[in-house]
Design goal:
Blueprint lengths: L1 E2 L12 E3 L11 H8 L4 E3 L5 H22 L13 E4 L9 E4 L4 E4 L8 H13 L14 H6 L8 H14 L9 H13 L7 H15 L4 E2 L10 H4 L6 H23 L4
Parallel strand pairs: 3-4, 4-6
Antiparallel strand pairs: 1-2, 2-7, 5-6
Length: 269
């Protein structure tokens, strides 16, 4: 078991982690993160102290490495071929742990509350990136692959796209592919309960399904990467896929990402 180093802020309490020691006990900085994971750009908030930079960089490096490990992807793939920017303590949204800014293609982590939401927001970045890759017609800046998929946009014929299409089918449709599944129906019910349109958005359903699968994995655990999909009030309200559904989602998800990882190792990232 590996734990993060405690700092002066409550943000840097001992986040539980069980996984490989990628850093071999060394400390890293945000430049290491940018280079290792292939981010296009990097922004650090002016109010982030030197100590906070070190502590956060170690936590974030391990979390991203854990995500690449679970997805069987080369680490540089997480930067989405140099299309994704990273911000820490800069460019976030009020009251949000983390945020994906689609106009600048930036994954922004809040200085004091960024932990636990990384997997969710990385999926948003991936979903946005794939909006221009999965379909024949060019994507608008606000398009996400999951939304275009639900709108039945015409897809490019490619084996990887077929696997991603299968992931959407498993996550959002019934087993025969003809109706909504219980996860979608529960999401719709949450929107009716809270009188909003949020939980049932395809972008949010896919992000919750993805982070729930990440937290369900027993190979490793990382509370900085993901948390709250099992025991939180939202989880108890049915906002995430159930365990049986998560298993099916995981099969489809790994079928896609493992094939993507194999393809990337044979071409220039």
């Amino acid at each position: 078991m590996d734990k993060s180093e405690p700092g002066q802020s409550g943000l840097y309490r001992d986040y539980y982690r069980r996984g490989p020691d990628y850093r071999h006990g060394d400390e890293v900085d945000f430049a290491d993160i940018k280079n290792t994971f292939g981010f296009a750009g990097l922004s650090i908030g002016a109010w982030v102290t030197a100590q906070e930079k070190v502590l956060a960089a170690n936590l974030l490096f391990d979390a991203l490495a854990d995500l690449a490990f679970l997805l069987n992807l080369p680490p540089q793939a997480l930067g989405l071929r140099g299309h994704l920017n990273l911000a820490f303590g800069h460019g976030g949204q009020r009251l949000a742990q983390a945020h994906y800014a689609l106009n600048s293609r930036t994954l922004a982590l809040a200085k004091n509350a960024g932990a636990g939401a990384l997997a969710h927001e990385w999926w948003h970045a991936f979903d946005h990136y794939m909006a221009d890759k999965l379909f024949v017609e060019p994507a608008a800046i606000h398009d996400f692959a999951s939304s275009r998929w639900l709108s039945d946009d015409r897809q490019r014929q490619h084996p990887l796209n077929q696997r991603l299409n299968r992931l959407f089918v498993v996550a959002l449709l019934s087993s025969d592919g003809q109706d909504l599944n219980s996860y979608v129906r529960r999401s719709l019910a949450l929107d009716r309960q809270f009188k909003q349109s949020y939980f049932s958005l395809p972008t949010e359903m896919m992000a919750r399904a993805f982070e729930a699968w990440v937290q369900s994995r027993e190979e490793l655990k990382n509370a900085y990467l993901v948390s709250g999909t099992k025991q939180s009030e939202l989880a108890q309200a049915g906002a995430y896929p159930d365990s049986e559904h998560l298993q099916r989602i995981g099969v489809a998800l790994l079928a896609y990402f493992e094939s993507l990882g194999q393809a990337l190792t044979q071409t220039e990232l």
